[in-house]
Automatic annotation (TrEMBL):
Homododecamer. NCBIfam families: aroQ (TIGR01088), PRK05395.1-2 (NF003805), PRK05395.1-3 (NF003806), PRK05395.1-4 (NF003807). This is 3-dehydroquinate dehydratase. The active site is at 23 (proton acceptor), 105 (proton donor).
Length: 149
C-alpha cells in the first residue's frame, strides 16, 4: 500500500487556536483524521508530520523523493505555511527530489496580504489548492492519488 505524506509547516500546530476567523476551529488532529480517512478510501495510507523547522521539512521531502522513486510513496501534500513565500530551499528540495507535491493552503492566500501572493513552491508543485479550509486536505490527498495513479 502506497503512502501519501502530508507535511505541515510552521505554526500549523496552532490550528484551532490561531486566527480562527482565517483558519477555522479545526485542529491539526482533525487534519490528520481527514487525511487518513481520505487515503483509506483511495486504498492508500496517510502519514502526517508537522514541523516548525525548514530543515526538517527539507529532510522529509528528500526522504519522500527516495520513497516515490522506489514506488513506496505516491506523493506529498505540502502546506509549508509562511515558508511558502520565503523558502527557495524548499523549492530546490522539491525540484531536486523529483517528488510530486500538491501545494495546499487552508486559507485563500490570494485574498490576503500581498506578501502571501508569491509562492516559491508553486513552480515545482504538480498543483496548488487553497481556500478550502481544513476539510480540503482530503481533496488534496485525492489529488495526489489522481496525479500519480
Amino acid at each position: 500500500m502506497k503512502t501519501v505524506l502530508v507535511l505541515n509547516g510552521p505554526n500549523l500546530n496552532l490550528l484551532g487556536t490561531r486566527e480562527p476567523a482565517v483558519y477555522g476551529s479545526e485542529t491539526l488532529a482533525d487534519v490528520e483524521r481527514i487525511c487518513q480517512q481520505a487515503a483509506e478510501r483511495l486504498g492508500l495510507r496517510a502519514e502526517c508530520r508537522q514541523s516548525n523547522h525548514e530543515g526538517q521539512l527539507i529532510d522529509w521531502i528528500h526522504e519522500a523523493g527516495r520513497l516515490c522513486a522506489s514506488g513506496e510513496m505516491a506523493g506529498v501534500v505540502l502546506n509549508a505555511g509562511a515558508l511558502t513565500h520565503t523558502s527557495i530551499a524548499l523549492h530546490d528540495a522539491i525540484k531536486g527530489a523529483a517528488v510530486p507535491v500538491i501545494e495546499y493552503h487552508v486559507s485563500n492566500v490570494h485574498a490576503r496580504e500581498a506578501f502571501r501572493h508569491k509562492s516559491w513552491i508553486s513552480p515545482v508543485a504538480v498543483a496548488v489548492m487553497a481556500g478550502l479550509g481544513v476539510k480540503g486536505y482530503g481533496l488534496a490527498v485525492a489529488a495526489v492519488a489522481q496525479v500519480t495513479g
